[in-house]
Amino acid sequence: RGYIKFAGKKYGKGDGDRLYMDLLEKGRSFEQWAKRWPTLAAFVGKPKVTGLLTRQLTKALRARGAGPKLIELVPYLVPEALKAGWDPRFFVGLAGHEQTWGWTSPANSPYNLWGWGVYTGTQGAQSFSAGWDTPQKAAKEFVEQFSEGYGGARGLQDMGAYAASPAWEAGVGAAVRAMGGDPANIRWSGF
Fold first, then answer.
1. What's the pLDDT band for 97 if we cut at 50, 70, 90?
2. In degrees rounded to 5, what are phi and psi of residue 154?
């Protein structure tokens, strides 16, 4: 037959991306599923969504003249955001707005490109983001902390008083749109 059945759904050859997203919605990992069912995983094919988003965002950032730290962060941020159910374009746009498209960051937390834990008037990151000295660590920890604080948010409008500036929401919204995202829906729902 030309399909497999999994969890009540049919998946055909090349449906790796669809299965990937369905597994994410259920809080499961495609990689773990593929280890358990390697023949089925080979049939549906490896998902391309992570690579596709990474390439799109990297290209968009280079076109904007973004800093190397933000570009370097993208390959780690995309899978972390998707795994947690967020649209990676939101986090990249947020970093773009908060830290001048990756050209500035706190001295003791060089990959804290969101200004997370940096209070107005200081450039030293607070204890929970100090030490984000690799893109892997920053991506993982930021997505986890953001999810804890804003897990119920569907869009920027749900985030309340995230920043002191009244223009913050409009600025972040414009940056998210520049990355191809929708500031009214910061959850991953596909392309």
1. confident
2. -105, -25
- pTM for the predicted model, two decimal places: 0.71
Q: Is the separation of the CB atoms in 88 and 190 below 8 Å?
A: no
* Reduced 3-state DSSP string for the chain: CCEEEECCEEEECCCHHHHHHHHHHCCCCHHHHHHHCHHHHHHHCCCCHHHHHHHHHHHHHHHHCCCHHHHHHHHHHHHHHHHCCECHHHHHHHHHHHCHHHCCCCCCCCCCCCCCCCCCCCCCCCCCCCCCCCHHHHHHHHHHHHHHHHCCCCCHHHCCCCCCCCCHHHHHHHHHHHCCCECCECECCCC
Q: So what's the pLDDT on residue 127?
A: 45
Asked if residue 172 lies in contact with residue 178, where contact means CB atoms within 8 angstroms, the answer is: no
